[in-house]
Amino acid sequence: MAQSPDIRPVSDTDFDAWLPLWKGYQAFYQVDIPESATRTTWARMLDPTEPVHAALSYHEGRAVGLVHWIFHRSTWTPGDYCYLQDLFVAPDVRGGGHGRHLIEHVYAQARAANAARVYWLTHETNTTARQLYDRVADLPGFIQYRKVL
To answer: 63: which of 7, 56, 72, 125 fits an S-S bond (Cβ 3.0–4.6 Å)?
Structure first.
């Protein structure tokens, strides 16, 4: 990619650009998030009182990537942590720097908010993305456990 992607926070007019990327993310992880959760998430990302944020990456005027992040308290540091929850780049532009720039965008937002850490999860089989993640972050070796309620 010759120039850095144009990364912008989502606005209330971006739903139609964001939704196909959100659906692409769900397809990648083979999940189907209910419409009600999608609408609630979108509303939270637009609400300045919520700790949920989103940005889109554009290529030639088209939204081709999304990132969502959430600030939350930590018992280990006075500063919040920043959880990069969702990252997705359209398959036809992968390898063009959008993922890296979206992560760097979150890093900048976290620094501006005086967060102590940015972290995220990915599936162990997501080998292509992990090649990027290994270059831009540290792998701490923790294992995630969960219980769906």
So the answer is: 56
Element (H, E) at 130: helix 127-136
3-class SS at 7?
Answer: strand
Q: How far apart are CA 100 and CA 124, in angstroms?
A: 19
The two structure tokens encoding residue 136: 């831009």
Please give the chain's pLDDT, 149 residues, in tens: 457 889 999 999 999 999 999 999 999 999 999 999 999 999 999 999 999 999 999 999 999 999 999 999 999 999 999 999 999 999 999 999 999 999 999 999 999 999 999 999 999 999 999 999 999 999 999 888 989 89
Q: Other CB atoms closer than 10 Å to residue 37's CB: what's the count?
A: 9
